[in-house]
Amino acid sequence: MNAGPTVHAAATTASPSAWAPLRVAAFRALWLALLASNIGTWMQTVGAQWLLVEESGTDTMVAVVQTASTLPIVLLAMPAGALADIFDRRRLLIAVQVFLTAAGALLTALTVAGQMPPTLLLTLTFVLGAGQALTAPAWQSIIPDLVPRPQLASASALGAISMNLARAVGPAVAGVLIARAGAGVVFGFNTLSFAVFALVLWRWHPAPATGSGTPERFAAAVRSGGRYVRHSPVVRRILLRAGLFLVPGSALWALLPLVASRGLGLGSGGYGILLGAVGAGAVAGALLLPRLRARWSLNQLLLISGVLFAVVLAVLGTAGSPAAAVVALLPAGVAWVMVLSSVNAAMQLFLPNWVRARGLAIYQMVFAGAQAAGALAWGVVSDVWGLFPAHLAAAALMLAGVVTLRWWPLRDTSGLNRDPAVYWPEPHLELDPDDHGGPVLVLAAYRVRPEREAAFVEAMAGVRRSRLRTGAERWGLFHDGERPGRLVEAYVVPSWDEHLRQHGGRLTGADRAVEQRALDLADGPPEVSHLLSTH
Q1: What is the pLDDT along the chain (535 residues), one digit of tens a residue?
Q2: Which position among 13, 22, 48, 218 has the lowest Cβ density within 10 Å, counted as fewest Cβ atoms?
């Protein structure tokens, strides 16, 4: 599992050091359970890849293990995010862990019995990936419920420490176990880790949710999540930066088994040591991250990390000894965690609660999709042209992505108020609308003086994005042809229920500030009317 927890308990108000979230008991228990699950996941990956190295003999087949484990996230991320925003996240997580335990038990039994051909192994890897796809958004979205907002960045870094400590420990343990007892034992440990995680979740009893209102319908929730990301430039830029790093970066994970076996002549134990070096570097990077953030801006961190990772890829393609590969892989882990922890924390801090799981699901979709596509592409390149050209091409692509920081940097959102803001007056209708009926046309008429009109129209561009993010499907601003100085905002919401959610908590303090800038240029508040569909 690829995430990091958290609980909004009467938590400590101590300064947000790297370890502060571990003072919250629930976070600590879930973090340890996550660590065990991450160790099991890495052992599973090493076992599957090494089994295919022995049985298939093709670079593409080995690289496709990563594709099979991450492709389900691409396919299921949005439905999983919608489920996590609609239903109780703890119960959803428990149900998924039970499913993963059953799937892992089947994989273990068939492997021990010697009935595990490559096609079946990839199929069951895909099934486990589907369970992970359902887990990730729910797990990520409970983080802000576990720790206070000032500790979110530290909690995200601890999630990275968990994942990368597992990367340091899991492959090394897997290598020893595969050499002595076979891949079946490794798969069995992964199955046990799912069961342990389910048990810890079952014993955790969070405070009852305080949200009001009925849950969104599933299809509407999926659409509204996609609509939010589509009309959020900040989220789109975060996703772009993640993709530009992950596509070339996936070459390291996809081709490392081949570097170990073919380039360096190592067995499964040696491969585990190489992965452990990346994990050790990543743990060091997570611990250094607070100091590095204090010294460099976020975009400087992305630039330095990208260049560092590109150099590692180029060196790894020519590494002539295990020692040289280990030395190269340590900074790769540092760069990997610096980029992904920073990007993940930016998403956590920006997304409002009502759409957090769906936004994180799309992030996971980009995270997994970039690695799945990249792994397949680098496997094919290696098959056709060889390991060194594949690493060199990945390094060149990484540097090209770094160059784009000049035009597409991450935006600083630290000054934006992301807390819910309920400030619209309650609508009072003479008709009784069907909650799920629609569409609904909302009209807001503003009086604007001629000398302020250009500034008002410019300010309404921000209002447009706010309306579209929070529920509107279409938006327009019009002059009233009969009454000069009167501008009418019109937007269509798919249902009355969706519009009430705009009134009841979808807007944030930042949305309110954007709307206030436009209102300051008008003569008084707008006249608002709601037009209901006759269907």
Answers
A1: 433 333 333 333 334 566 788 888 888 888 898 888 888 888 888 888 777 776 655 566 666 776 777 778 778 888 888 888 888 888 999 999 999 999 999 999 998 888 888 888 888 888 988 888 888 888 888 887 788 877 776 777 787 778 767 766 777 788 788 878 888 899 999 999 999 999 999 988 877 655 545 778 888 888 999 999 999 999 999 999 999 999 999 999 889 988 888 888 888 678 878 877 887 888 788 778 878 888 888 899 999 999 999 999 999 888 878 999 999 999 998 999 889 888 888 888 899 888 988 998 899 888 878 887 898 899 899 989 989 999 999 999 999 999 999 999 998 887 788 888 999 988 888 888 887 887 999 999 999 999 999 999 999 999 999 999 999 999 999 999 999 999 999 999 999 999 999 998 899 999 999 999 999 999 999 999 999 988 7
A2: 13
Q: How far apart are CA 330 and CA 445, in angstroms?
A: 60
Structure pTM? 0.80
Helix axes 59-86, 233-258, angle to 10 degrees: 150
Residue type, 76: L
- In DSSP terms, 479 is beta-bridged to 487
Asked whether the beta carbons of 374 and 249 are under 8 A apart, the reply is yes
Q: What is the DSSP letter of 27?
A: H
CA–CA distance, 249 with 271 (Å, rounded to integer): 18
DSSP string, 307-354: HHHHHHHHHHTT--SHHHHHHHHHHHHHHHHHHHHHHHHHHHHHS-GG
3-state secondary structure of 493: strand
Instruction: Report CA torsion sign: 261, 266, 267, 269.
Output: negative
Q: Where are the beta strands (DSSP E) in 363-504?
A: 440-447, 474-479, 486-493
| CA proximity to 18, closest of 345, 350, 346 | 345
Cα of 262 vs its chain's centroid, Å? 33
Whole-angstrom distance, CA of residue 136 vs CA of residue 1 = 7
